[in-house]
Amino acid sequence: MSKSENSRLGRRSLLQAALAVPAVAGTATVLGAESARAATPQAGTTAADGRRGHFDEESPRFALAVLPDTQYLFDADSSDPEPLKATFRYLVSEREEANIAFMTHLGDVTEHGTEDEIGLAADTFRTIHGKVPYSVLAGNHDVRSSTDDQRGDTAYLEAFGPQRYASMPTFGGASPDGYNSYHVLRAGGREWLVLALDWRASDKGLTWAQGVLDAHPTLPAVLTTHDIAWADDNGEAHLSGNGQRLWDRIIRGNDQIFMALGGHYWPSGRTVLTNDAGHDVHVHITNYQERYYGGAGMIRLYAFDLVRNVVDVETFSPWFLARDPEKRTPLEAETIELTGPVDRFGLDIDFAERFQGFAPVVPPKPRPASRVMPRGTVAYWRFDSSGLTGAGKPGSPVAGGTVAHDLSGHGNDLSVQLLHTSPAEALTWSAEHHTDQPAHASLRFDGGKNPNRGAVLTTGAQAPLNSMKFTSGFTIETFIKLPEPFEGDHAWMGILSWEGRNGDAGKTTGWSKEEPTCSLNVTPERFLQFVLYPHVQDADPTSWSHALPVGRWTHIAVVNDGLGTVMYVDGSKIARNPSQPATGIATLGKPFVIGGTQFAQEFGQSFYGWIGDTRIVDRALRPKDFMLSMD
Fold first, then answer.
1. What confidence tens digit (pLDDT) does each residue in 66-121 have?
2. Which residues pair with 186 in a beta bridge?
């Protein structure tokens, strides 16, 4: 505990806890002894053998719970452990819902470090022990503040030394003195390292910590200690003297440390520093001991979302939260949650990019066509050397007449046509692709207006696909990417279609009789439209997506089961799918086209962006069988 010269506090608020995960430790040493627990599943983990599960270690959403200075709750004869027990009960009860992976205490567990205070605190930790893995480190009030981790035996070490964590499979080991430890936990489908360092790590302690990092070079690491930074009135954190030493000795040169957390000072604060690799390190102070009831066991949840690439942070007191709102006192109601910028906030972290230097993501290898052609595949095109004649270097033009082979073997080859007086660069070969696309290649279409330009790929006049009716259902899939920025005056543009006007198929409903009988399009606002004129019904059931992002690959699937049509974007069903019945496609023996439609060319434009693997199956597939997810 220490109050900084700048002590003004802001109020903060409660985010919604929703995430987190498990823990499986790697091998390590505990005071020099090999840990035999590394392969033991943690209590509550979701395991293949069906044992009880309270969290999901593979979910991309998980939470790290952080507990700062609790010393005023363990202060001689004024001690009251109930707030901390309530916090622990909350973490246990909410572990599954919030997917809580781990809890770390930032030191100053007690006020004086006496045997009685330490004993009461250790007993309180029984509430969480064996139910949520955790780490604890010594603060200056738990041990003699004039000493470092070479101080020898203490009441703290007796209660919170390595033996306390020996049964936790997350526990990796401790320094020979016992005051520094580390845990390896599995969360978000990968392993993470948590370092818990004494309030004054000695040179020996820092050498040990470096050894831990060296032994786990690919694990992203969160460093926890008691004293690392203080904050000014604006919540801007600054390294303390001890924090500067840790920064110089252990943090800045180890790129895997992306977050460093401490307590000790108040008010709370945060900053972002740049390490030697040029990457961000988030440094946070968390301490609420000066607030009502010594902080009342206030907890901070760091909710990681590896899909959204964010960490959402919330701060609240489960003890006050559990009370009847009508019976809360004014101070209890005021302290239930904190809502200012240093207690409730979000961190934008592109995890793959941030961890690239020490744990690069290995992209999936291309998958051969034979592995992505399920029963009923009637056409499959890809634009690598296996599917496109003369596939060249990135950026090289694809000449008119170039053939994209139908790898299903059904004779639905496509031929390139340059539109109007388009230059050769209207269609180029690209190595860009969706991460989960089978082929690692695509075509870059430079369609546009003023002047009209573009390119399409069309089937031959006798291709079987031209006349197929699909009355039992179909699945059409493709990968596309819209450029960033989405420059120019882009009109309605086609992605793929069967040519032939619906009016010629005898359809009397719909927006225009000139529309193709089946087409997938992009509006100027970047909404997908799939419009179908069925073989059986006189109707035009139409699906509409949300606005597509730019600069990012998107997988599109349109599934018809012979009764109706559903569109999926990146494996997720969209909202605006039609309820109208739709059986088959009213094809007219006209070519199938990728890169545009006759209607779009007349009233809009040909495609602008990238198109990758495209597949048509003559039955309805389930999402698990899409190209996006197939092995």
1. 999 999 999 999 999 999 999 999 999 999 999 999 999 999 999 999 999 999 99
2. 191
Helix, strand, coil shares of the chain, percent, nearest 5, are: 20, 30, 50
How is residue 623 annotated by DSSP?
G
pTM: 0.81
- pLDDT above 80: residue 598: no
SS3 state of residue 439: coil
Dihedral (Cα; 458, 464, 467, 468), 10-degree rounding? -110
Q: 142 near 69, Cβ under 8 Å?
A: no
Whether 170 has a pLDDT exceeding 80, the answer reads yes
Are 107 and 137 in contact by the 8 Å Cβ rule? The answer is yes
CA angle 575, 576, 581 (to 5 degrees): 120
Positive/negative CA dihedral, 577, 583, 588, 594: positive
Alpha-carbon Rg for the chain in angstroms: 30
DSSP state of 536: S
* Cα gap 562→560, rounded to integer Å: 6
Residue ranges of the alpha helices (H) in 178-274? Answer: 203-215, 241-246
The string of pLDDT tens digits covering residues 449-467 is 877 889 999 999 999 999 9
> Quick one: tokens of 396?
């090289």
Question: CA 502 to CA 504: how far, in whole Å?
Answer: 5
Q: Is 614 helix (H, G, I), strand (E, B) or coil?
A: strand
Beta bridge partners of 190: 187
* Residues 429, 393 contacting (CB under 8 angstroms): yes
At how many degrees (to 10) do helices 115-124 and 82-93 cross? Answer: 30
Helix (H), strand (E) at residue 459: strand 455-459
- Residues 232 and 95: their CA atoms lie apart, in Å, by 34
User: CA-CA distance, 228 to 483, in Å (whole number)?
Assistant: 44
> How many CB atoms within 10 Å of residue 16?
10
CA distance 53 to 103: 18
Two tokens at 250?
Answer: 């252990």
Dihedral sign from CA coordinates of 160, 163, 168, 170: positive
Contact in structure between 604 and 440 (CB atoms under 8 Å): no
If DSSP codes are grouped into helix, strand and coil, which group holds residue 183?
Answer: strand
* pLDDT per residue as tens digits for the range 419-444: 888 899 999 999 999 999 999 999 99
- Whether residue 555 contacts residue 436, with contact meaning beta carbons closer than 8 Å, is answered with yes
